[in-house]
Write a structure and sequence with these properties.
The chain contains 8 helices and 8 strands; from the N terminus they run αβαβαβαβαβαβαβαβ. It has 192 residues and is an alpha/beta fold. The chain has a single domain, classed as Quinone Oxidoreductase, Chain A, domain 1 (Alpha-Beta Complex), CATH 3.90.180. It has a 6-stranded parallel beta sheet with strand order 3-2-1-4-5-6, with helices on both faces. It has a two-stranded parallel ribbon with strand order 7-8. Strand 1, helix 2 and strand 2 form a beta-alpha-beta unit. The N terminus is likely disordered.
Length: 192
């Protein structure tokens, strides 16, 4: 099965389905990134009220897909002002996990699907215990997940956000990647 570039990153629809999101406020960290911008749309497609967390530079682009946009590194208080979140999709990992946990309501769940920092991450165990927060690592989908993701694409519930680059641009793209200055996915075309 040959997939179009638009399908890049779409197998993550599991992150929104592992708990009931209909009408629930869900925080999405890294909302302007290649996984995050699509995870926002998937959560919305399943009925969540999405609170997107992103950098100020990406806020305008992300606002097209989310119900609320919060910017900055200390975002938990802003999310609490919106009523908190019943769940979160964490695509950044270590650098934002504590703020994510602090923003959550009692009994919330976190789908951990990314980590940009390989260093060990301190976790505020007291908050996890007192709020009975569950963290679920999600690493991959299966064929059924892919089929459902492609159905979301087909009906327009998820709109691909990506730019296509030539293979000759790859060194520059790799150099820019840690700065996360782009919105959405980057697809590198090999050959014609």
């Amino acid at each position: 099965m040959r997939l179009p570039p638009e399908a890049a990153g779409k197998t993550r629809r599991r992150q929104a389905k592992w708990y009931d999101v209909e009408g629930a406020p869900v925080a999405q960290n890294g909302a302007g990134g290649g996984v995050g911008i699509h995870a926002v749309q998937v959560a919305r497609a399943y009925g969540a009220r999405v609170i997107a967390v992103t950098s100020p530079a990406k806020a305008e682009a992300v606002s097209k897909y989310a119900d609320h946009v919060v910017t900055g590194k200390v975002f938990s208080e802003e999310i609490k002002k919106l009523g908190g979140a019943d769940g979160a999709v964490e695509t950044v990992g270590g650098p934002t996990l504590e703020q994510t946990v602090r923003s959550l309501s009692w009994g919330a769940r976190v789908a951990l699907i990314g980590n940009v920092d390989p260093q060990p991450t301190p976790v505020a165990l007291g908050i996890l215990i007192l709020k009975e927060i569950e963290i679920l690592p999600v690493i991959q989908g299966n064929m059924k997940d892919l089929e459902e993701a492609l159905q979301l694409l087909a009906r327009g519930a998820v709109k691909p956000v990506y730019t296509v680059h030539g293979f000759s641009e790859l060194p520059t793209l790799l150099e820019e990647t840690p700065r996360a200055s782009h919105v959405g996915r980057r697809v590198v075309r090999v050959g014609n």
